[in-house]
């Protein structure tokens, strides 16, 4: 569940089958006068819009019941609730929820149309705030992936270095040097330069070489960390590891760049 604020009104957004549904009940609080969602459903344009949306998104939509409702819409005697609409037509675009966060929710496409019924200004700000929420979610999602991909094998990788490469009774500065050296092996294998060389070449960029890496490189880097751990445990020399890791990096990057799922993830 998430919330956005539109013209000082808190609007609840929930996920239903991985789709965003916006609370019409919350939105209605911004409309002047006493109105109900059933009043909106009496409008023939509303029913026609809902029918078109359901035809596009819902293969189980009941067209027979829909035709009956359309023929009655707009009449003074006509009235239908959200529960009646959904039960008669098998509609999926509107839902009535009970409980703490109960109320009427609509798929975002429908909620935007409902926003126009509140006011043109409300609809514009609703779309704007909803998009801001989605942009914030994507930024957080992308940042988490970038940071977590490089951390997935960190503990395994550093434990292998400590067990196999660090002699006993080394000073802390010497231990840090060994870790940095191993990290730079992967940097050179994948990026063609050490962290220091990258910093010197990019003084105006924030972060480090891995912070500026793309999604493809970070996926490959996580795989190289696991592979390097295995090589370390097998007591393979550094020179041999560099050569083997570079060959793997070239092959994996070629595969990743042609992978359609990775392309979708990179574009998010």
Automatic annotation (TrEMBL):
Pfam families recorded: KilA-N
KilA-N domain span: 1-133
Record-linked PROSITE patterns: KILA_N (PS51301)
Naturally occurring in which organism (per UniProt): Sulfurimonas aquatica
Protein name in UniProt: KilA-N domain-containing protein
